[in-house]
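Renewal narrative, Specific Aim 1. Our central claim is that a sequence can be written position by position from structural information alone. The example that follows is taken directly from our test logs and has not been curated for this report. It begins with the structure tokens describing the chain, in the order in which they were read.
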């Protein structure tokens, strides 16, 4: 008798003995926070034949067992997981739960033909305009043609590292446009493609990018470790996309326009757009008194406020005169 097969949409914490047939839509290593050269966990986005996705994690004790046995874009039979809430800093799937491998987890490779597995679930651009502000920490896949670019800019990260970014304008088949920001090594890679003019449209496929609000406008950007990005890849989706584009021949250099670089993000922009609340000195003092009562001496309050500001969470405070 064939083993029972469960579906991703049915997974919940009521048992451990889940039996799945899934493709690995995305696989990446997450580094240790103490040593970036050391792998802390292996992260997977699993997708079943219905197209439903769930995130899975292989923690350090299981790395040696599974690291070389699981490959991206391959299909597997997987059984036995610990089911936890999907409440991380970023969510690769909208599923309420995620999976953790443990000592009894079993993985076996299956033929790629087991089911019609497509590792990409492209989000229409108009959905980003409509729902982007409420995406929170949920990540999505996109495909589009590069029709505009801004100048490369330098950037200093929260950890003090210097990097660079470039913002591209993407257009889909319905002529909706969005902006896409790439960071770090992706900048040099995309520039090399932009310098090539082979007469073909320049398509980008991005996987697990996050939505980002800037002055009431929503765009997408890469996320460290999680995302992946393909430039003019030889994928069936890209080949079909090019066939569906307008047949009028326009060279690549003529298709991509130079955009005006967006100004740096200013505090006054945040105030005018009502992105952060504005407080008077009296209100801040009252808030500080409440914090002292909750967490102790004033030096601890300052420490907590500094951490909140660095993380861009909690209350943003702009002080103005009483």
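The sequence written for that structure reads:
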């Amino acid at each position: 008798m064939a083993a029972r097969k469960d579906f991703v949409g049915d997974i919940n914490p009521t048992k451990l003995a889940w039996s799945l047939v899934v493709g690995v839509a995305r696989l990446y290593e997450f580094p240790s926070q103490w040593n970036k050269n050391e792998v802390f966990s292996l992260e997977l986005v699993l997708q079943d034949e219905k197209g439903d996705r769930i995130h899975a994690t292989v923690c350090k004790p299981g790395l040696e067992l599974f690291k070389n046995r699981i490959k991206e874009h391959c299909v597997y039979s997987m059984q036995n997981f610990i089911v936890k809430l999907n409440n991380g800093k970023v969510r690769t799937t909208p599923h309420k739960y995620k999976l953790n491998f443990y000592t009894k987890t079993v993985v076996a490779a299956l033929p790629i033909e087991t089911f019609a597995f497509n590792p990409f679930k492209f989000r229409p651009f108009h959905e980003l305009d409509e729902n982007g502000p409420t995406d929170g920490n949920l990540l999505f896949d996109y495909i589009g043609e590069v029709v505009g670019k801004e100048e490369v800019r330098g950037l200093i990260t929260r950890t003090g590292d210097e990097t660079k970014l470039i913002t591209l304008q993407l257009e889909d088949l319905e002529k909706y446009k969005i902006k896409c920001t790439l960071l770090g090594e992706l900048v040099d890679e995309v520039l090399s493609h932009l310098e090539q003019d082979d007469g073909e449209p320049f398509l980008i496929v991005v996987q697990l990018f996050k939505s980002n609000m800037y002055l009431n406008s929503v765009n997408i950007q890469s996320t460290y470790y999680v995302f992946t990005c393909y430039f003019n890849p030889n994928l069936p989706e890209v080949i079909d996309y090019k066939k569906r584009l307008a047949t009028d021949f326009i060279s690549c250099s003529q298709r991509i326009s130079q955009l005006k670089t967006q100004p740096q993000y200013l505090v006054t922009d945040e105030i005018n757009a009502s992105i952060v609340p504005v407080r008077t000195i009296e209100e801040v003092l009252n808030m500080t008194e409440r914090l002292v009562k909750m967490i102790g001496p004033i030096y601890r309050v300052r420490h907590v406020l500094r951490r909140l500001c660095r993380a861009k969470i909690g209350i943003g405070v702009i002080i103005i005169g009483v």
